[in-house]
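Dear Dr. H.,

I hope your travels went smoothly. While you were away I took the liberty of generating a structure for the chain from your last submission, since the lab meeting agenda had it listed for discussion. I wanted you to have the full record in hand beforehand rather than looking at slides cold. The sequence, exactly as received, is reproduced here:
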Amino acid sequence: MCRLVGGKITYVHRRLWPAIVRLASFLDKKTLAALREEHTPSGAHRVCAIPFPRWVPPEIRQAAENISEEEAHLQLGDWIRLYLRRGYGRAS
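The corresponding predicted structure, in token form, is as follows:
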């Protein structure tokens, strides 16, 4: 879970993590922070952010190194090109 698309909670399937990591240099690092919901002792919910790339497991980093940028774009689909074109990422 992160705020990748328009600042909204975005669920990213684990199989797409390598593609996201591969294209991270084009994305705003703040949007790549992993979000975790915790329960406080009072029963309230609190959202905690784990900064990118600290949350990325070693096997995902390795998988990201083994795919090309083109393959990462293909895996993520058209939305990533629109995302970048609209200026949400670093490379607009």
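Two observations you may find useful: The first helix runs from residue 17 to 22. The chain has four helices and four strands.

With kind regards,
E. W.
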